[in-house]
Design a protein that fits this description.
With about 325 residues, this protein is of the alpha/beta class. It contains 14 helices and 13 strands. It folds into 3 domains: about 110 residues, 3-Layer(aba) Sandwich (Creatine Amidinohydrolase, Chain A, domain 1); about 140 residues, Creatinase/prolidase N-terminal domain (Creatine Amidinohydrolase, Chain A, domain 1); about 50 residues, no CATH class. Strand 10, helix 9 and strand 11 form a beta-alpha-beta unit. Helix 13 crosses helix 14. The model has no long low-confidence stretch (mean pLDDT about 95).
Length: about 325
């Protein structure tokens, strides 16, 4: 839903910045597929372009695969960036295109060839989420993951979801709007654990904490070669809905794949006592901010004052920002 600017290729091509949609470009046509939430926004933002709006769920609207079959025909080649698609999503699209005799290439990022001022990979520093809030150290989290992997018949996994990366290594970041996460990858094996991220993101404090927890830190770009070099002893748990197609393609044939839901997803869903207690404290602090806001609003209305939704949102945010350890909103407020 919230994507760093480097990967906002759809917005760069079309000008459409809704949270859901797919742009398809052929040699002769271009189209945007989106759902009913964005029909009005899509029409407005595409106005004046040569991109046609395709309203998903409306009778008569072709699927993306159907559109490509009609426009291109058998023998055509469609390309997408396999680093931005899950293995499950990529394989599903491949199978649908194969029905029409269309090949699907996932080994290239065409945006890099034409997006000359493309933003770089986010490089803001990571920061620690201490055990006093997490309830576990990074070393304890990693040990939990290893036990869960063993129960699944695996001994390693690649961490591709950045919320899971933040959870297992007790790190946070500023790379995604409204979400305290940092861009990177992770690997947890039987004896090793690795964080792949840009060197400039790693502060001395983060490096010291992760090193003490047995985590090696490698460059963000080293993930492909690392996965390609995994040994035959590795039994890798692979979640097709979470691993990218590109990373899955790097897994050596001699590695045994164990298909299943990410153990980190399941472990992260179960909150420990410390996390539960902190959630209650956070809700209490937010309740104080809301109470102060409502008191101010009632007094303002009694004086005959009036405010727009946007002005009220700004004022409520001010009350919340006065609270201890306020980091920002969890999502963009929907207001006029």
């Amino acid at each position: 839903e919230y994507t760093p600017s480097r990967w906002q290729g759809r917005s760069w091509i079309s000008g459409f910045n809704g949270s859901a949609g797919t742009v398809v470009v052929t040699l002769d046509k271009a189209g945007l597929w989106t759902d009913s939430r964005y029909f009005l926004q899509g029409a407005a933002q595409l106005e004046g372009s040569t991109i046609e709006l395709y309203k998903m769920g409306v009778p008569g609207t072709p699927s993306i695969e159907g559109f490509l079959a009609e426009e291109l025909g058998a023998g055509a080649v469609v390309a997408a960036d396999g680093a931005c698609l899950s293995l499950a999503e990529a394989e599903s699209t491949r199978h649908q295109l194969e029905v029409y005799g269309i090949s699907y290439r996932l080994d290239t990022d065409l945006l890099d060839r034409v997006w000359q001022d493309r933003p770089g990979i986010p490089s803001k520093p990571l920061f620690l989420h201490p055990a006093e809030y997490a309830g576990r150290t990074a070393a304890e989290r990693i040990a939990e993951v290893r036990r869960a992997l063993k129960a699944q018949g695996a001994n390693a996994t690649i961490v591709t979801m950045i919320d899971e990366l933040a959870w297992v290594f007790n790190i946070r970041g500023y790379d995604v709007a409204y979400n305290p996460v940092g861009v990177g990858f992770g690997y947890i094996g039987g004896d090793d654990a690795v964080l792949f991220t840009l060197p400039e993101k790693v502060t001395d404090e983060v490096r010291a904490d992760l090193t003490a927890s047995g985590v090696c830190i490698l460059d963000y770009t080293a993930i492909d070669s690392f996965v390609a070099g995994l040994g035959a002893e590795v039994r890798l748990l692979v979640d097709p809905k979470r691993i990218t197609y590109r990373l899955a393609a790097q897994i050596p044939a001699h590695c045994r794949r164990v298909s299943g839901v990410s153990v980190l997803t399941q472990l992260k869903a179960i909150k420990n006592d410390t996390e539960l207690a902190n959630l209650r404290r956070v809700m209490a602090r937010d309740g104080v901010a809301l109470t102060r806001f409502f008191k101010w609003l009632e007094e303002a209305l009694s004086r005959g004052e009036s405010y727009t939704e946007h002005e009220l949102d700004v004022r409520l945010n001010e009350y919340r920002a006065r609270g201890e350890r306020f980091y920002g909103d969890s999502f963009a407020t929907i207001c006029g």
